[in-house]
Write a structure and sequence with these properties.
With 236 residues, the chain is α/β, with parallel strands linked by helices. It has two domains: 166 residues, Thiamin diphosphate (ThDP)-binding fold, Pyr/PP domains (Rossmann fold); 41 residues, no CATH class. Strands 3-2-4-5-7-6 form a six-stranded parallel sheet, sandwiched between helices. A two-stranded antiparallel ribbon has the order 1-8. Strand 2, helix 2 and strand 3 form a beta-alpha-beta unit. Helix 1 packs parallel to helix 7. The longest helix has 15 residues.
């Protein structure tokens, strides 16, 4: 091993640690076994699910309960497709989730290899973004971007597909700096004009009722809702 270089699986563990991750939920298989070898030495806990779908749902539940990004992992092929229901649930309910899937080695992609499936293609409609990592040196940056995308703006799932040989490739971990994504400008504040119009509608209503969505899980949003409901005597 060259000085300063680590296996791709180790680089992912270090990148996850830099994001302050506490738990990862998953199930091992052939394509992500090199990652699990590194998880055995990780400083955070790993939860072994009975089924990949359960891992995705647990990561979703963790995100909802803590307000942090939930992380799950599965192998290629059926392992990845078993995550789909949980990823779709997180997408529909705006839960911040990062899924790390194994994939067949790079030279086998597109050759109908054993347990090969187009994971990124399958998950395009149910993720905020997804990646197929072709270079181990891109792993640290990809993890940082995935966490940022999953948790910013309207939260949602991001998938990272990693070929088996990339997990094994000797690479430079890199620094987990805040990503600068051209063209990605999430809306982080309310629109003043829309807020004024909403206030006027509420004031004019005879029997207003507040119906809230999953975004209210944010502590700031929850406190603001309680203040509004109490001050205006509106049921929620």
């Amino acid at each position: 091993m060259k000085k300063g270089k680590v296996a791709g699986g180790r680089a992912i563990v270090k990148a996850l640690e830099a994001q302050g991750m506490e738990l990862i939920f998953g199930y091992p298989g052939g394509a992500n076994l090199p990652f699990y070898d590194e998880l055995a030495r990780a400083p955070f806990r790993q939860i072994l699910a009975r089924h990949e779908q359960g891992a995705a749902h647990m990561a979703d539940a963790y995100a909802r309960a803590t307000g942090k990004v939930g992380v799950c992992t599965a192998t290629s092929g059926p392992g990845a497709t078993n995550l789909v229901t949980g990823i779709a649930t997180a997408f529909m309910d705006s839960s911040a989730l990062v899924a790390i899937t194994g994939q067949v080695s790079r030279h086998l992609i597109g050759n109908d290899a054993f347990q090969e499936v187009d994971t990124t293609g399958i998950t395009i409609p149910i993720t905020k973004h997804n990646y197929l990592v072709q270079d181990g040196d891109e792993l640290t940056r990809t993890i940082a971007e995935a966490f940022y995308l999953a948790g910013s703006g309207r939260p949602g799932p991001v998938l990272i597909d990693v070929p088996k040989d990339v997990f094994l490739e000797q690479c430079t971990p890199g620094d987990a700096e805040p990503p600068q994504l051209e063209g990605y400008r999430p809306t982080l504040k309310g629109h003043p004009g829309q807020i004024k119009r909403a206030a006027a509608i509420i004031k004019a209503a005879e029997r207003p009722v507040i119906i809230v969505g999953g975004g209210i899980r944010s502590q700031v949003a929850y406190d603001a809702l309680v203040t509004l409901a109490k001050s205006q005597d509106i049921p929620v």
